[in-house]
Design a protein that fits this description.
Length: about 140
Amino acid sequence: MLTFRNMREMTKDEMKAFFQEGKKIGCAVHTKVERQELLEALSRSKETGFPQFVLVYEKDVLMGFLFIYGEEGHTWIIHNADEKTYEQEKEMLAYGRDLCKKLGSEKLAKCFQQQLEEVECMGKSHQEARIAWIEENNRKKKEN
């Protein structure tokens, strides 16, 4: 079971830990400028609207993120659910869908729902599907 924490509700010590450990989940904040940009984005985060910045933990270990910017602009949703196991990916996508519904964005909820349906149709995570595809291609190359 995953735990979801909105970054808006985190203490300074928890934010400091994220800045140090974010690179482990593909969400590195290397420079003071990047840190300031993230803190500014977080300052715009609203309890009842967008953007939303959610960190995902498994047994108190940071393992994922869902950054949902809203319906405006080029990037609406950024996450690393596709790098997780089947069950983790499904749980993260379902959480994102439900959060977007709660905040009144059917459009973003639909994006998460489509990704969730794709994963369920495949019967495996995107990461597991990529690994299987690579292994199959390598097997075919060896046969030729």
